[in-house]
Structure formats: structure tokens, C-alpha cells
Design brief:
The complex is a heterodimer of chains A (154) and B (348). Chain A is of the alpha+beta class. Chain A has five helices and five strands. The radius of gyration of chain A is 15 Å and the shape is globular. The model of chain A has no long low-confidence stretch (mean pLDDT 95). Chain B has helices at 7-15, 36-41, 71-83, 116-143, 168-175, 204-209, 243-247, 269-279, 293-303, 317-323; strands at 20-27, 30-33, 47-52, 58-62, 90-94, 150-153, 156-159, 165-167, 225-229, 238-240, 252-258, 261-266, 282-283. The model of chain B has no long low-confidence stretch (mean pLDDT 89). Chain B has 348 residues and is an alpha+beta fold. The chains are: A alpha+beta (154), B alpha+beta (348). At the A-B interface, helix 1, helix 2 and helix 3 of A face helix 6 and helix 8 of B.
Amino acid sequence: MLTLTVNGKKYTVDVPPDTPLLWVLRDELKLTGTKYGCGQGQCGACTVQIDGKAKRSCITKVSEVKGKKIVTIEGLAESHPVKQAWVAEQVPQCGYCQPGQIMQAVTLLKEHPKPTDSQIDTAMAGNLCRCGTYQRIRKAINRASAAGGKGKKS
Amino acid sequence: MKRSITRREFIRETLAGAGLAVAITMTPLGARILSAKELASGEFAPGAWLKITPDELVTVYVAKSEMGQGISTSLPMLVAEELEADWKNVRFVFAPAADQYKDPVWGMQATGGSTSIRHLYEPLRLAGAAARELLIAAAAREWKVSAGECLAVNGIVRHGTTMKSITYGQLAGLAADLSPPAKPKLKSPRDFRFIGKDLPRLDVLDKVNGTAVFGIDVTIPGMLHAAIAHPPAFGARPTGYDEAAAGKVKGVKKVVAIDSGVAVCASSTAAARKGLAALQVRWDTGSSPQLTDESLRRQFRDALGEMGLVARNDGDVGTALAAAKTRLSATFELPFLAHVTMEPMNCT
């Protein structure tokens, strides 16, 4: 049995310790906002925050997050400036990659509240969008940055 | 928990209860609006395409797949336009897999070929217009005036002379027993408020919140998860795999041979994937062993030496090239690019 803290709540799960965090979130905790894209840490769809840092949950073993604070897309308030910027700019197309994009962007803005284009490129390069919403993602990041960037957890 | 409901439950839920539901059935002669009596008779199995409830919400049943092309917004726009709805009260629900929601041109449920708007432009506008006329008729009956003196605008019916007004939510229950018009009147395009305009999409919030349900997110109580080993070459079949090793993985329930490969069924995705890895599937060379990345590359490079199809022929290329002071030459190679979406193929 393992105890996890996700979005401020404690959960106890009975899974092998080498289970990828992604599947614990989706199948055990029914938090399906975090998505499976490649299973190899190459597409970014599975991005969550672990102790404030963006991490690919598909290649993170659940045993590695014992005692750590996990935040998923469900853990950000709807009023979060990044979510609000994403809505204002109508960023999503199919929407599948967007939770991962948002979690990565939230971490970027925490580290660089006024990011340069180059910092945005570097931070977001690992989050693939097959629909090609990249220009709207950049606009939304800049919009959130102008609005103050950080927000409350829900 | 996202449980799929039965067809009967869905129809009962949508057509019963408080509010006004407009159902249309597709016939070879076009869309036909069904009366409340016809609905009650149970003879028809209509698709409810829109419902108005006392809380003012207008729910449009979207019978196409939203893939980012925006039909979960644009199809409700067609209804809302003719209905003269208040856009902020418009919601959508995906219709279930059912004959009632077949595409009227194809006679089956499918989304593709850029046809959603084309095929549903008329039926959905008719449904919205029928609902609008029903609501006006209900208001006119309530006020004991003629329908011609009433105007529907932005979710409200107003009486032209007395300026009395009543909302769609208040009217919905009152309109439910009226017979819908056989030929509802459609708006002129010059009066369009929504069609042709850039409205905020109805699905964006769910996609930003992570609550939008993709195929891969569907869960049903007691379901198993399967991971599939696909052949590495066209037509390749498994020559062997270690079923016992897969069975030893905690959570694995069954190994199933399928036409195109092998599947491992387990109580969780993680267990299914672990079981698949333990299977160690061995494959034969398939139906076209000579077809490889390298053989395709060689084929394409050889084809460069042949004359291709002429797309355009301006001027005298042969002479121009021969007389050119500087000639630039380059070969561009592209790998096979699959149409793959970020969401892996899946089904429930």
C-alpha cells in the first residue's frame, strides 16, 4: 500500500511500486485529465507537477513520489490565470495535449514570470501538439504572464 | 464514473420530463418533425435533437464526433440561430450510438469528409425553427393573442403591442402539448446572429479543465483494460508467445489471440502493459517481407530518374536550364508521415 498526496488530498493505493504514476492517477484515482500519448516521456501529454516541478508521469514510478506533492490539471482552479488565458485565446483544438501543455506552462511561469520567446521555446519544446496550436499556446502564455502568471490551487 | 446509458434510458430521459423536446426523423423526403402525440405513441424512434428546460438551458444533441473541428459548437449554432436562443444558455450533449442519430445522407453514424455542417445544416435549422414557432404559439395561447403579434428574440418571446414577455424556460412546459409546424419558416441569412460569426467554443472549458471525456477516458464499472501487440510488418502473424509469463503478472486476467496480433486483458492499464511486455511475442515475416523502409527509399530514388506527371509547363525549361549560369540541385527526403493523433487509437 502506498500513500500519495494529489491536489492536496491523501490517497492510499494498492499497486506495485514500479507502476507509472500516470496509470495510478488515471486508473486508480480516476483523474483522467492527465493523458497518455507515448508512454516514453517524449510527447508531454502526461505532464504533472511534482513538488512544483513539471514531470512526465508516464516515466515516473509511483514509488518515487512518496511524500511529494503532486498537482494535476484538476488541481488548478478554473480561475487560474493560465487556464483563463487558455480560454480567452481559445487555445485547444482537439484538446488532448492541453492539460500537459498547461501544467508545463504553469511551471514555466513560476520560474520565469516574464518569459522570453526563447525561454518559452525551451520550456514547451517537449509538449507536442499534433493539431498545431503552438502559436495560440505562446499567445496564452504571454497573456497569462501579463496578467500575473501565478494562481491559487483549487 | 462515466457509465454509458442504454438507448431506451436516453430517449426516456431526453423526451420525458419537464420542458420541450423537438424530435426529427429522417425520411427519404427529408427531415420530418414529430408531434408530441407521435412521440407518445412509441411508433417512431426519433432522435431528440434539442431540448429546452425550465432552467432556460437549451441542450442540443450533437450526433457527430468532435475532433477539434468545432462541430460541438457549430451544430448547436445552427439550432440556436433559428431558435433565437440566448447563446449563453446553449449547451451540447453527445448523442449515443443509435439509429435515430444516423447521418441523414449516409444512413449511418459517422463523421468525416467535411460533411457535418453540409448534412445537418437543414435538419438542425428546421428543428430550431420548429421549436421557435412552438414557443411563440404557446405564448400566443397564454396571452390569447395571435402568433403574428409575437416576436422571439434572444431566449424571450415578446408581444409586440403590450410588450409582455415570457422566457423560453417558462414557455417550455406550456409548449409541450402543441403540434409542431410541418414546415417551419427559416430565417434569411442576412438576419443571422450566430451563423458566420466567431463564437466562443462550447468545448474549450472542459478541455482546459481536463474534464472533457476522450475515448481513452471512458470507464465502465468492472471493465478490463487490454494492451495489444501489433505486427511489426504487414500481414505478420505471431509464431509464439509466453502466455504463462504474462499470466504471472498481477492483474492479468486473460491473453487473447486476435486477427492482427495478441491482446492481454487485465484489471488495470499498467498490468495489461506489463503483461504484454512479458508475452515476448515472436512474429513471422508477414505478407510482404521485401517491403522495407530501405526498399521504399530505393524505389522512390529510382523513380526520380523517370519523367513524372506534368503539373505545369511554362516557357522552355530545357533551354533555360542549359543556358543558366548557376544550377542548384537538391534532394529532399520525407519519412512516411502517419496521420496519428496525440490520443492513441482506443475503444471501449
